Amino acid sequence: MPRRVLQGVVVSDKNDKTVIVSVERRVMHPIYKKFIRRSKRYAAHDEANASKVGDTVMIRECRPLSKTKRWEVVTSAASQQG
Asked: The whole model's pTM is what?
């Protein structure tokens, strides 16, 4: 079975080898039929501590690494400051 891959923004890098990634998705409201944004935070393993706050990263499902970590950072793209 393929592993899920999500894209999000790093919101915290204070832990060692762990980043918190906020992933946003758009869902349609069942009554008003308007798209609203929903976000969820995932703890992801970052072995090299390479990702910093504001970076856009891709995370992939993996085996449980701790109580809350089930994701790992695949690619880290530097954030566009401008």
From this structure: 0.87
